[in-house]
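Hi V.,

You were right to ask for the full record rather than a summary. Here it is.
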Amino acid sequence: MVKHQVPTTLKIGETGFGTGLNFLISAYHWLQITDLKCTLEYTSVERYPLKKSHLQRVYTTFTQQWPQLQTCCAEFLAQYPDNFDGTSRQLQFELFDQKIRLNLLIDDATEGLKQLLPTHKSTIDAWYLDGFAPNRNPEMWQSELFAAVAKLSKPGTTLSTFTAAGHVRRGLIEAGFDMHRAPGLGKKREILFGVRK
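Predicted structure:
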């Protein structure tokens, strides 16, 4: 496989870590296309992190469906705390000889992103905005979150989300993103993607 020239450090931000599937897929592809001098810094905010035992069950299914993720799942699980009690506000992981750094903030999405502003303003290269859909998690999908995402982004930062809700699209446009609809996957008819102006 041909290795591609990429920035020395690529920074991805995410709301809603969940099972970590976005992270695992990103890590897998990062390892396929980059050389040893490049680092992926992945920062995700998750209010209710899953227990290791739950992740182990989920990852068994993941690796059956996507065998290529097996190494990434194993590397992550090896460092995930056995008895995570929820008292820590942050978990940090150095994976694959420090080629990938994961910073997992345990917090409400908006509050977690606001905590990043002093050190990460205008530094994020790409976003995954996930978490539950707006009708199931309305407190997350608000103008305050969109503003924090915009402040953490630089011109050209990309963004994608499985939701296609009109108020999310309008809120991100108002925050400074050029937003578009795209065909979704499976039962999802449409998704949103955009670029920071």
